[in-house]
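Subject: sequence -> structure tokens, single chain

Hey, anyone have a minute? Need the predicted structure for the following. Not urgent.
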Amino acid sequence: MKQPVLEVRDLKTHFFSRAGVVPAVDGVSFSVNAGEVLGLVGESGSGKSVTGYSIMGLVDPPGRILGGSVLFEGKDITKLPEADWRQLRGNRIAMVFQDPMMTLNPVLRVGTQMVETIVAHKKMPGRQAQQRARDVLGMVGIPSPEERLSAYPHQFSGGMRQRVAIAIALLLEPALIIADEPTTALDVTIQAQILSEIQKLIGEHGTSLIWITHDLSVIAGLAHRLAVMYAGRIVETGDVDDVLRAPLHPYTRGLIGCVPSSNRRGQLLQQIPGMTPNLLNLPSGCAFQARCSRADGACTAPPPLFTRASAGGAYCFHPHTGDGA
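Reply:
Had a minute. Here:
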């Protein structure tokens, strides 16, 4: 088998505060193959975004990567000097943020920002860089790309700004893109258009993608595999169809039950009882036990991996295995 584009091994990213140490990412492991889309899903506060920032080397104090490794194309990038990171980010690994204004400079024209991104990594004449920027804007569905290059970010709608942010991520055809809930703030029509463009571009260029989201309805038609996070840990992995049709972990089943389309018309939406645990005071064993109807005394110990016949599995003492319980 070919080497994965990205392999995360036992990653630990903790935040240090006066109240104590917050294990935002606590022993996370997964891999992404070339041309594959991995959905990283979970509630707010589950550690999804911090995982993405850790991969990108964007964790600053009071946060710190305490352990594990992030192998990109076979090389551990967790301890790269900043000069090497500047060559890697945007070039071989790119990130799309939930708020496009985290990517866009409000006082520079879009064309200027795109051309500067290109020339920072490639020895390319300005006219050629301008042509590349114009072509990529057209690829993500922005009309009249030639005119839009001279516009400022505030002259774009929210959906168009997000398309520009995605275009910047695609400029240098990176091997890996990390998308942190980039369509959450958009209306469903624009969301569907952007998802369609992303699928087409990933297919054409063979780019690997990590799509971070809490919305299972978005990821269902986009991802090849899912990794479900809860309280800083991955609780279930598997092929997207397997996980969505027959979830093993009670938390995954609860997330799916919260999606309106999985409920009958007129019925109340299902809810996961309780609240996410305080990361400063996590229970021993399974972090989900206080909210789980299947929990018992065994769940105070670290849960074992229950493997799925096809691929992946769940860390749970009492997984849903089709027993009707």
